[in-house]
Write a structure and sequence with these properties.
Blueprint: H1 5-27, H2 29-34, H3 44-69, H4 74-99, H5 104-131
Length: 154
């Protein structure tokens, strides 16, 4: 797959969204969740439970952004972005059905997550179509040759 400018921009935005959210949670989870009218109330156990996935989110965001700069990681970054945002969005939608509608900021968050997830899925489908049928003699997909940047061969 050619690393198009639009894909690079998308991966940058997708990864930076995850990184920004994770920093907000890691630095001040009480303030971050208060934006959505959620009172953590200094519960040390809850803070631990909140910061752990925030650290994972930071790692995911960094990996997604790395696909912008490291062509070998582009497919992995697109796949991770797809799984990350669709799972968050789907989880919020399930919660809306079971628990009812949350505040408007969380409904908007669900919309953004679903949007980023669907865009990621479209890029993933485009990647998969490009690599389909390129199977080596050992049965492994040889994607590294297709992950090179758009630079001309010398």
């Amino acid at each position: 797959m050619r690393n198009s400018i639009s894909l690079k921009v998308f991966l940058g935005v997708s990864g930076l969204v995850a990184i920004a959210i994770s920093f907000g949670i890691l630095i001040s989870p009480t303030d971050f969740y208060a934006l959505n009218h959620i009172d953590i109330n200094g519960d040390v156990n809850l803070l631990s439970e909140i910061r752990a996935p925030a650290t994972a989110l930071l790692t995911y965001g960094a990996l997604i952004v790395s696909g912008t700069f490291i062509p070998r990681l582009t497919f992995t970054s697109v796949a991770l972005s797809t799984v990350l945002y669709l799972s968050y969005g789907f989880g919020r939608l399930v919660s809306m059905v079971i628990d009812g509608l949350p505040g408007i900021s969380l409904v908007v968050s669900a919309g953004i997550e679903v949007l980023l997830g669907v865009i990621s899925l479209l890029y993933l489908w485009k990647c998969n179509c490009h690599w389909r049928g390129q199977v080596s003699s050992q049965g492994l997909v040889n994607i590294t040759a297709n992950m090179r940047s758009d630079s001309p061969k010398g």
